[in-house]
Amino acid sequence: CFLTGAAKLVVVIAIFLLTFYVISQVFEIKMDANLGHIFVLFYFPLKATKPPRYKCGISKACPEKHFAFKMSSGAANVVGPKICVEDNVLMSGVKNNVGRGINMALVNGKTGELLDTKFFDMWGGDVAPLIEFLKSIQDGTIVLMATYDDGATKLNEEARKLIAELGSSSITNLGFRDNWVFCGGKGIKTKSPFEQHIKNNKDTNKYEGWPEVVEMEGCIPQKQD
């Protein structure tokens, strides 16, 4: 049975090769090259092309003179927020530099270089250090903020006004356990287009007592002289 099967296989291969040879002669195809190509494809199939990866994992490349960024708020009181600029993770739970309240990263608007990171506890802490820090930010600085757990309870009118001056539209409505991410700048003349806000609502919350995570990505224009 084995010999019979082997003989049949040899016949099939012979017929295949003969057929291919006839076709190659009719269409003047170089047989050796094409046979080689067939066997190469058989043993080494083409690999699927991987989609390109852009900085910080954003969905498309940023134009020249723009900084790529991606950020997310915290998830309930379990997973901290994450802020990435130009493929550099500036703040995250893995880096162990995030905390309850408002998390903030400052970036040089000309170079994209990290200047500072801070978090301010807006539940059990004091708003005064946040206000002092906001007042110290220099013109031309990119400011990225993300909430974790609760970022609003201790906010007062002065703190909200200072954040609004950075380009925020939602800070006046930020409430207890809302999720919020924002990217603005010191000296900005208009409202920032980079802001996401989800209200804490027991009827729509994804987690018990907290809304779902908010994520945001985009391209920040480089500050020009």
Automatic annotation (TrEMBL):
GO molecular function: carbohydrate binding
Subcellular location field: Secreted
InterPro entries for the chain: FAM3, ILEI/PANDER_dom, ILEI_FAM3C
Membrane-spanning ranges: 6-23
Cellular component GO terms, alphabetical: extracellular region
Main localization (coarse): secreted
Every ILEI/PANDER domain range: 100-187
Top-rank taxon, per record: Eukaryota
Keywords from the UniProt entry: Disulfide bond, Lectin, Membrane, Secreted, Signal, Transmembrane, Transmembrane helix
Pfam families according to UniProt: ILEI
Similarity comment text for this entry: Belongs to the FAM3 family.
Protein name (database record): FAM3C protein
Source species: Climacteris rufus
Gene: Fam3c
